[in-house]
Design brief:
about 0% strand, Sigma-70 family RNA polymerase sigma factor, 9 helices, Arc Repressor Mutant, subunit A, single chain
Length: about 190
């Protein structure tokens, strides 16, 4: 069955009203377009998946700003391209700041910024606080966050482990991240 432009427009309107099935439809329908676009640009499956998830998270958060005079896939790809450009800029800035042409004398005077015992304690406390926030999520959201970010499994590995379709895993992870961000914002 072919999806008509009217059906897409209808699903976008439902998504603007917060209907989860519309978000799932749009994610399923456009996932390969956005993922393929990123894979061609950066040639790294893991990063392409991450950027694609971030694209849909940002698009769904800002769905009210979508202008119907543009096509939805163009809007998604623009968001995706901007996320990828921002990531590349941050990475390049980090690389640039880590290189130096200064003399050894100047380098010797640079303050050591390696983590102190206090820094390590603060990081551990932040991790403990994050884990407490994660525990406030429903168990099926906790599980995908754990598998993705703590066990560092790919989306395909999570799909196999949970015996669920890949797109369900992507939607669940997207929703879990959004709910976790809301919990953190409420607690702070």
């Amino acid at each position: 069955m072919e999806i008509t432009p009217e059906e897409i427009s209808n699903q976008i309107q439902k998504a603007k009203k917060g209907k989860q099935e519309a978000f799932k439809f749009l994610l399923d329908y456009y996932w390969n377009d956005v993922y393929g676009f990123q894979l061609k640009r950066i040639r790294n499956e893991h990063d392409a998946e991450d950027i694609t998830i971030e694209t849909f998270a940002k698009a769904f958060d800002k769905i009210d700003t979508f202008d119907p005079s543009f096509t939805f896939p163009t809007w998604l790809l623009t968001i995706s391209k901007n996320i990828q450009i921002d990531r590349t800029r941050k990475k390049n800035a980090s690389i640039y700041s880590n290189t130096t042409d200064t003399s050894n004398e100047i380098v010797q005077k640079i303050v050591d910024h390696s983590p102190t015992p206090e820094d390590k304690l603060i990081r551990e406390q932040n991790l403990a606080q994050l884990l407490r926030f994660i525990k406030l999520l429903k168990p099926h959201y906790q599980e995908v966050i754990n598998l993705r970010y703590f066990q560092e499994m790919s989306y395909n590995e999570i799909s196999e482990r949970l015996e669920e379709p890949l797109n369900n895993v992507k939607v669940r992870l997207l929703r879990a991240r959004k709910l976790l961000a809301e919990i953190i914002a409420q607690k702070e």
